[in-house]
Structure formats: C-alpha cells, structure tokens
Amino acid sequence: MSNLENKEKNLYNLIDKLSNLSNSYSHTSSESKKLTKERDFFQKEKIELEKKHNELLREHNYLKKKLDTLKAETSENYNLQEKFSKEIDELNQETEELVEEITKWQT
C-alpha cells in the first residue's frame, strides 16, 4: 500500500509541476500541448492503476472470505472425524467387553 501511495504522491507532484510549468513559463504552443498530453497520460495512468488496485482489493477480500470458509469447514470436518473415531473406539471397547462376557458364560 505504501508503494501505491508513494506513486500517487509522485504523480500528483508531477501533475502540479507540469501545470505550474505551463502557467509560469512562456512555452510555444507545441511545448504546451506536449506537456498537456503528458499530464493527461499520467492522469489516465493513475485512473487505470486505481481501477486495478480496487480490483485486486476486491479479489483479495473474496479470497480471504473463501479461505476463512474453507478453514471453518476443515475444522468442522476434523471435529466430526474426531467424534466418529471416539465413537468407534467406544464401540470396540463395548464389543470386547461383550466378547469377554460371552466367553465367561460359555466356560
């Protein structure tokens, strides 16, 4: 973000300098047009960079939400797996106890 802010600050400074140059010095018409074109170019570039930046922010927020959702699902699946494993262990223990009881009754 700091890099973008620095570029924006530099762009504003350059636009101001270009505007001041065209106002403070007597330029030929072609020089003034050239400076105006440069200023317009930088303004358009700034607008495009801001659009790209906003797109990247939207994409970042979307991916962040998606990642949070996936983390929550993974955590829930892990908890269900742990619960399932615990229930299987309990059933195994009950089965062993039943087998022991059956063995006692048979002897």
Q: What do you see in this structure?
A:
By secondary structure, this protein is mostly helical. It has one domain. 94% of the residues lie in helices and 0% in strands. The protein contains two helices and no strands. Helix 1 runs antiparallel to helix 2. It is rod-shaped, with a radius of gyration of 35 Å.
Draw up the topology in text.
Elements lengths: L1 H23 L4 H78 L1
Elements, N to C (H/E): HH
Total beta-strand segments: 0
Main beta-sheet annotation:
none
Q: Helix count, per DSSP?
A: 2
Contiguous low-pLDDT stretches (5 residues minimum) are: none
Shape: rod-shaped
Our measurement of the CA-to-CA distance between the termini, rounded to an integer number of angstroms, reads: 80 Å
What does the average pLDDT come to? 87
- What structural class do the secondary elements suggest? mainly alpha
Radius of gyration: 35 Å
Summed up, the domain count is 1
Helix content: over 70%
**Proportion of residues in extended strands:** under 5%
In brief:
With 107 residues, the protein is mainly alpha-helical.
Features:
mainly alpha, 0% strand, 107 residues, single chain
